[in-house]
Amino acid sequence: MANTAKAYAIALRALAAEFGEQAPLTELEGEVGADRVAAWLTGRWGAAAAATFNARLDTLGSACAWWRDQHWLTGDPLRRVRRRARTPDRTRALSRAEVEQLLTLPRLALSAPCSGCCMRALPAPGVREIWNGIRR
Question: pTM above 0.70?
């Protein structure tokens, strides 16, 4: 809960600093408002990681939805902004050689190659093929 409150505070304080704390929410309405919000959001957090950008966008989206529920806002000032795709973190993936090295460690004491029986219960498609590829 503390992180959520902190995330909301960061985004909403920045919005208030940009548009003015006393500015009416109608400043965010219409095409001009949407353009201004998009320019501000991408200028403010455009260089941040996708997760950070998306967190700020989600926070502002939730705030705008609540303001619409209160009838303080009618449109969507974020309509010009899209979530950013997160790049998968592949830095922790093991290479085929590293997996092979781990499987052949003497302290594992594998007396016979695994038949893959432990993989039969897994429903995910392709798991058995991946496992068989590792064992080769």
Answer: no
